[in-house]
Amino acid sequence: MLLQFITQQLSKAAMLQKGAEYIRQLRAEREQLKEDMASLRQEIEGLNAAISNCQSMLPATGAPVSRQRAGKMRERFDEFVRIRTLQNWKFWIFSILFEPLLISFNSTVSTASLEDLCRTTLLWVEQHCSLVDLRPAVLNSLRYLCTATDILSDPSRLPEEATRAVTSGDSKNAPSRAPPRPPPVQ
Predict the structure, then answer these.
(1) Which residues contact 123 (CB under 8 A, 6 or more apart)?
(2) How far is CA 96 from the centre of its chain?
(3) Which own/partner contact pairs does 169-176 have at CB distance under 8 Å and 24+ positions apart?
(4) Exposure of 8 by Cβ count < 10 A (0-12 exposed, 13-18 middle, 19+ buried)?
(5) Per-residue confidence at 177, pLDDT binned at 50, 70, 90?
(6) Could you give phi then psi for residue 88, rounded to 5 degrees?
(7) Other CB atoms within 10 Å distance of the CB of residue 13
(8) Would you put residue 62 in left (φ > 0), alpha (ψ -120 to 50) or beta?
(9) Nearest to 85 by CA among 154, 158, 177, 185
(10) Measured by CB atoms within 10 angstroms of the end CB, which terminus of the chain is less buried, N or C?
(11) Which spans does this entry mark as compositional bias, Pro residues (predicted)?
């Protein structure tokens, strides 16, 4: 019985020893996890600071218009002008007047979000659609029309020239002696 008592004591002592070792192991793991968490928090703070720094360098109006988006807009505009001009040649004249506004709209308005779209569209209207801004744009467009077509010398040819301008395949080649397109609204 004494032997059994000693054996029970030893086995309880061994169990307590193993329990103590397990507790030490758990505490060590907990400390390691705390260190890992602190390290990750510092990394998160560093990444957030880097993100904030990058965001502060972005333009206030959102991401600039990509060349691809501007090119797509140009393709859609040219196709729309072609279709409408073939229905009514006078639309070509309207497109010449409108094109500088399209260019300025495309370079000013941000579509990053609905809020940005509304805000930058209103800003564009204020900056580019007042009479003071539209007069020079219309004058440049009319000057282009007068030098690129025979409207002054033979106005009866204008319908044919408008149709040729949109069916030539490349609007830059229409009419053949056409100067550069009118400059965008400033």
Answers:
(1) 61, 108
(2) 26
(3) 171/78, 171/81, 175/148, 175/149
(4) exposed
(5) very low
(6) -150, 110
(7) 10
(8) left
(9) 158
(10) N
(11) 177-186
Half-sphere exposure of 126 (CA within 13 A, CB side): 6
Q: Tally the C-alpha atoms within 13 A of residue 179's C-alpha that lie toward its C-beta.
A: 12
Q: What is the mean pLDDT of residues 155-173?
A: 81
Residue 169 region by backbone torsions, left for phi larger than 0, else alpha for psi between -120 and 50, else beta: left
Length, in residues, of the chain: 186
Q: pLDDT of 82-108, one tens digit each?
A: 999 999 999 999 999 999 999 889 888
Q: How far apart are CA 123 and CA 14, in angstroms?
A: 80
Q: What is the pLDDT of residues 147-161, one digit of tens each?
A: 889 988 999 999 999
CA angle centred on 40, ends 35 and 45, rounded to 5°: 130
Q: Which H helix or E strand runs over 157?
A: none
- Residue the block writes with tokens 């991401």: 63
Q: Residue type for 49, please? A: A
Distance CA(63)–CA(112), nearest Å, equals: 7
